[in-house]
UniProtKB/TrEMBL annotation:
Residues 326-355 are annotated as: Disordered. PANTHER family: BLL1145 PROTEIN, CLEAVAGE AND POLYADENYLATION SPECIFICITY FACTOR FAMILY MEMBER. Its EC number is 3.1.-.-. Transmembrane segments: none annotated. The keyword Ligase applies. It comes from the Bacteria. InterPro entries: MBL, RibonucZ/Hydroxyglut_hydro, Xnuc_lig_assoc. This is Ligase-associated DNA damage response exonuclease. Keywords: Exonuclease, Hydrolase, Ligase, Nuclease. One of its GO terms (molecular function) is exonuclease activity. Residues 330-346 have a biased composition (Acidic residues).
Length: 355
């Protein structure tokens, strides 16, 4: 594998993994915008990822040639054997397993280790080189159980029945996961959706993920109409909470579902009243556990807090290498990316988060 301005290039195979700009041949790990780009010549991905790309980019921009490959299936390209394994990040997300001349590299894409009712769980694959993300690679990031955070949300709804609860979450993956977790926790009432998240919820359902009754937030209300959706749960992109759209709702409780909500300063600056620590990435302990499970003597880190993770790997006798790939970590929030923490925020997390 070679690091290039376009991303990771498999030189003998003649293809890129998650390239940052259009290329002739690409293997795409999942549908988030910092990994899946429009305009490639040929794209290999899971059927779900290809469906997500078509929904987001249009049929003619998701790859001139689209090759769907299920988990566990393999194809050989110029002597390089390609297999896709579940990554547990979002629906269809995959690790890219590459084998050539007796060696194996696994490119994880983004991944999480928590159970997620909307996608297949992460599958550790032993390898010679493991290419990992490091989004939450600081010891302060130890995410609580998802059920605990969902219970906090439901308790707040019960405590403030006169208010709407608006949960800011990524349109792809996080929104659908929160809905599924709410259903498991016993919420059988409708979940209301901002228009920007409806399309992907519909796609998830068409791909077999059951989300229960979903309704759009009512539009076209006349001036002076009483606030709506008191006691209800609304899912929206994080950026929507600060727009006039939210004013129609009954005294909304601003919530945000993100691993970054560990950083209390970030929650405060964003005006988040109820921060929910629900992440679609592995936390610090899960990163280290994963690296131990795959038994790779060499680990490459694509983005995030690579310095802390590389240091921790060195203490464990594992060779670490920071790749500094361009464009990684900028997952979309309908045009408002949620960036990694600044140094000031990271310092605040170190001081204020539980260890």
């Amino acid at each position: 594998m070679k690091v290039t301005p376009l991303g990771l290039l498999c030189e003998p195979g003649g293809f890129y993994v998650d390239p940052s700009r259009p290329v002739e041949r690409a293997v795409v790990s999942h549908g988030h915008a910092d990994h899946a780009r429009p305009g490639h010549g040929a794209v290999l991905a899971t059927p779900e990822t290809l469906a997500i790309m078509r929904a987001r980019f249009g049929e003619d921009r998701a790859g001139d040639e689209q090759q769907a490959m299920a988990y566990g299936e393999s194809v050989t390209c110029n002597g390089v054997r390609i297999t896709l394994a579940p990554a547990g990040h979002v629906l269809g997300s995959a690790q890219v397993v590459l084998e050539w001349q007796g060696s194996r590299i696994v490119v994880s894409g983004d991944y999480k280790r928590r159970r997620d009712p909307t996608c297949a769980p992460f599958l550790p694959v032993e390898c010679d080189v493991f290419v990992t993300e490091a989004t939450f690679a600081l010891p302060v990031f130890r995410h609580p159980p998802d059920s605990h955070e969902i219970r906090r949300l439901l308790d707040s709804v019960a405590l403030f029945p006169e208010r709407a609860h608006v949960v800011g979450a990524y349109a792809l993956g996080k929104t659908q996961r929160i809905i599924a977790l709410l259903r498991e926790a016993g919420w059988d009432r409708p979940v209301y959706l901002h228009g920007a998240v409806e399309k992907l919820c519909t796609l998830y359902e068409s791909l077999g993920v059951r989300l229960g009754e979903l309704l759009p937030v009512p539009k076209g209300l006349k001036r002076g109409h009483p606030p709506i959706l008191a006691g209800e749960i609304v899912l929206a992109p994080p950026s929507a909470e600060a727009t006039p759209w939210a004013r129609r709702l009954a005294d909304p409780v601003t919530c945000a579902a993100s691993g970054w909500m560990t950083v209390r300063q970030r929650a405060k600056l964003r005006g988040v009243e109820l921060p929910l620590i629900i992440s679609d990435h592995a936390d610090w302990d899960e990163l280290l556990e994963t690296i131990e499970e795959v038994r790779a003597p060499e680990v490459w880190v694509t983005h995030g807090r690579d310095d802390a993770l590389v240091h921790a790997l060195g203490l464990r006798g594992v060779r670490g290498r920071a790749l500094h790939l361009v464009g990684r970590g900028d997952e979309e929030d309908e045009g408002a990316p949620e960036a990694p923490p600044t140094e000031e925020e990271a310092d605040a997390a170190r001081r204020g988060a539980p260890s």
